[in-house]
Amino acid sequence: MNTITVLGAILFILMTVIGGKTGATAFLSLIFNFGLLFLAVVLISWGFPAMGVSLVIGTIILAFTIFFGEDNELAAKTAYVAALIVMVVLILIIFPVEHWIMAQGFSLEDSEDLEGMSLTIGVSFVGVAVTEAILSTLGAIAEASIAIAAGLSEIIEQHPQVTTKRLYVDGISIGKQIIGTTFNTLFFGFFGGFLALFIWFSGLHYSFGSVINNKIFVAEVIMVLFSLIGVILTVPVTTWVMTLEHRRGQSKLKD
Amino acid sequence: MKQRMQQHWGLWLTLAVVLLGLIGVGLTRVNAGLYRQTVAQVTHVSAVSHTATSDEFENKDVNDVQMVTVRILNHQHRGQTYQIKNNYTQSGAMDQAYHRGNQVFVRIPADRHSTVTIQGLKRDTALAFVAWLAIALLLLIMRFNGLMALLSVALNAVLFYGAIQVDLATNGGHVYTLFGVLAVIFAALTLWLVLGWGRQMLVTFGATLVGTGLAVIISLTVFAVTHERGVTYESMQYVTQVPRPLFLVETVLGSLGAVMDESTDIVASLFQLKTERPDIAANQVFKSGLQIGHSIMGPLINVLFLIFMADTFAMTLLYLRNGNNWGYTFTMNMSLGMVQSLISGIGIVLAIPVASWLASRLMPGEVSTR
């Protein structure tokens, strides 16, 4: 048996046993997301524009992650709308920055892996870098928007007459609670995986100056920063969407 | 009134820090003197040629040649200008076009007859700008909590750097011990900064260690049973030491933050529950913990999954366009990320019952009745 299959089976069993139906659907969303990621690469390799692919695939990934993980309808809907808004804002930041910083494709450190490969493949690697950056932020955005939306919808359920101003304060305060740990999830998630590269840098005595201008290092750091920006923006945006929903719900009640 | 004043000062202080930061970003345009490498600014570019190419897999690309005029900004050649030929492709996998105003690193050989070459773009200004944007937003929206989050990441980065130095000094001989201990310290330090010292922190800490530890034990067992079939260590990138230990350590460190994140959420909610309903039974607390865990785990596993997988994009694309089939492309590029995601996922799921159980048994009220 293949290691991936066995580990996958164990994860599925654990998620079902511990998480019940929610766990099973969450596992399903993981599989869908994998399929979508692979589809994104294949589509780009077929020549579809990277921006369009990231927008479409990103929209679907957010939907799977949010609607498969959250049962509360108001929370899920709010989280999804907010996550979409944040994704679009992030694209507007990521696109110009990637064209400015030019940390796309490969670097000298990759030479060994690139042996015998043709690099002139006619696909813009800057576009690929934009796609990578957008897709890597989606998980964090979805998680944060769900946390905020779930917290706020619970407050609305318990105090239906809560004021908009009060909701803002609550939203930001939930955000403050999650930001510290979310920050750590991102930091470890990105840098844990790059231990080998850092050992390479230190072992070959790269100077501080060459590290902070190194293509791979810069590409990785800006991905963490984009995710972080995404999570920070998610807090006020989700709160704002929730207040709109809440106000609409209230005016409906009055009619 | 006094509080109002303090809030006011806080806002002004934050704004001042943000503005100073922006000035700092601007200063990176004129920091060439700090670099050992020769830095130059592009003053003029002109296109030389433009040729369509096609490789053995019939990928169509365009080869461009441009003449780049640079003025040296530092060291002994300062003020001199050079003309450098730059070859680049439209896809730009390892090369790029330069534009007027770009700052670049150049190599000027001592021997007059050799040509001057561009080594790469100077990216510090753009990097500083993005960092500034993130930190400014963090401080403006989160204020003090944002500052603490930054502090914990900065401390972890210092520890990380220290551990790498020790690893190199010992030639990677004690990777497991070294990074195992580091993971424990990371967790303790981070949770201490987030939660402060106390029972809640200890419970969260315990849940993080046990959850991650169980995931490692399960994975090692699976590795042994399946003889690691399909785990392509040879495809690991940037490896200068034995790949297997490095991979396992990368996986544990990668999932550590997520497991802490989740344990913190669950334990905090359960302690809150206990404060609101002091008479609640331990079993009920345990069940509530599982309930909270249900909705957290899916999104959290997806966070790591997307981070691990997005990194493999460029290489996967290159494989596909170089005539490899899907199966081989997946094995060589995505399988390691997949294994990493699955092990992290197992850790994240297992931390739920562990955190709930520990919290239900170690709540303050429980201890006093003993």
Question: Could you explain the architecture of this structure?
Answer:
The complex is a heterodimer of chains A (255) and B (370). Chain A is an all-alpha fold. Chain A has one domain. Chain A is built from nine helices and no strands. Chain A has helices at residues 3-45, 50-69, 73-101, 111-114, 125-158, 164-192, 195-203, 208-213, 215-254. The longest helix of chain A has 43 residues, at 3-45. Chain B has helices spanning 2-27, 124-142, 144-169, 175-195, 199-226, 243-276, 282-310, 313-321, 326-362, 364-369, and strands spanning 38-54, 60-72, 81-89, 103-107, 117-121. Chain B has 370 residues and is of the alpha+beta class. Chain B is built from ten helices and five strands. Chain B starts with a helix and ends with a helix. Chain B has a five-stranded antiparallel beta sheet, with no helix packed on it. Chains A and B meet through helix 1, helix 2, helix 3, helix 5 and helix 6 of A and strand 2, helix 2, helix 3, helix 4 and helix 5 of B.
Shape of chain A: globular
Largest interface by Cβ-Cβ < 8 Å: A-B, 127 and 135 residues
- Cα-based radius of gyration of chain B, to the nearest Å: 27 Å
Structural class of chain B: alpha+beta
Distinct helical segment count of chain A:
9
Q: Distance between termini of chain A? A: 62 Å
Quick overview of this protein structure:
Chain A: This is YibE/F family protein. Chain A has 255 residues and is an all-alpha fold.
